[in-house]
Amino acid sequence: MGKIIVVGSGFSGGILARKLAEECGRKVTIIEKRAHIGGNMYDEYDENGILVQKYGPHFLNTNKYFIIEFLEQYAELFPHDAKLLSFIDGNYVRLPFNFRTLQQLVGAKKSEALLAKMREKFAGRDRVPIFELVDSDDDDVREYGNLLFEKAYRTYTAKQWGLDPEDIDRSVLDRVPMAMNFDERYLNKDFQYLPKKGFTELFKNMLDHPNIEVRLNTDALDYIEFDEENKKITYGGETVELLVFTGAIDELFGLKYGRLPYRSLDIKYKYENKKSILPEEIVSYPQAPGYIRSTEYKKFTYGIDMDMPVSMTATEYPLQYDPESENANIPYYPIIAEDNIKLYEKYLKEAEKYGNIVLCGRLAEYKYYNMDICIEHALEKFEDIKKKLED
Ligand SMILES: Cc1cc2nc3c(=O)[nH]c(=O)nc-3n(C[C@H](O)[C@H](O)[C@H](O)COP(=O)(O)OP(=O)(O)OC[C@H]3O[C@@H](n4cnc5c(N)ncnc54)[C@H](O)[C@@H]3O)c2cc1C
User: Fold this and answer.
1) Averaged pLDDT for residues 63-92
2) Cα torsion at 270, 272, 275, 280 (round to 10°)?
3) CATH numbers and ranges of domains, the chain
């Protein structure tokens, strides 16, 4: 038996490491290049007791209760429905756009007939992608879809992705829906929670196992070597039996086919001596120059004194990922577009040649996984790995 190396300590790496350690009784070494565990879920308390998620706001939401049960082994969770507003033409409107937004944008009188049409056309559907409105055969529905798209969506998308909407994969654009009711929640999932003491605490507990060793501040790429001829992998000269990789796949293979593009975020913090800064925990700004949204973390820090006369906003400025840059050196979002998927597939073939590389997670699989999907997927991957190790 050789070494089991897990590169990355986010949900993908963390779950696979814990399962391998616990259920297979195997020693696992996690290699993490950052100074902390948790990947993009990392959070920490600031000096005011506000729990700040360093890599942008994250809300756990799922329709599958086993995901909640799984996480409750490692942390106490509390129910929290994420709420968002969008600042459009000087007014705050609910996100996702719902029937109230429609009334606000077209006026109460005109909205009556349109609401009736929407109810009929999309009967039984809770949320409908904006594009279904834009593509509708009904003139009024289409007109409203175009209004939303132009006012709120085109500019937001252009800023977030640095591309025209026409050049982005439809699956990404379809993530923004309109609520076919007056539901004020950002997400319509059945189970919406946050860990009381934060995600970092959850990860600490998950990785606290005698078979797990975590090495922080270590770039795995400095130690991994591929013997292409014999299809062998070594880490620091030792043979690797299993390499679980959750980082960027193009970097694993030395960018030999070129770099896969990602979007990054420059997050700017602003403290103010106010009890409250924003009218909601997150506000999106489709029409503002350069930035897309602001988060006021105090509003969802568990147990904090809301009357405390200080708060903070974290504002996200999307940028193209560039590992050499000072403010855009973290790959946040894979850019799902045809050419990029083709390039990804070349790297995938490269990995498959070895037979003992498991690619898991947003970066390694170049997919737009939400936390719940990422968790479920890691649990499924574990079952495959277990079978392989037992054979
Ligand atoms: C801004 C933002 C907001 C989000 N909000 C939500 C939300 O509200 N709800 C939701 O469900 N999901 C959300 N997500 C998605 C969620 O963040 C992901 O599903 C999840 O964090 C992915 O985990 P992962 O382990 O695959 O990747 P990551 O968390 O990125 O972990 C990968 C780890 O690998 C490490 N690594 C990479 N290369 C190397 C190397 N060479 N050597 C050593 N270590 C390496 C990295 O440092 C990192 O720690 C959001 C994502 C973003 C970007």
Assistant:
1) 96
2) -30
3) 3-82+196-260+334-390 (3.40.50.720), 97-179 (no CATH)
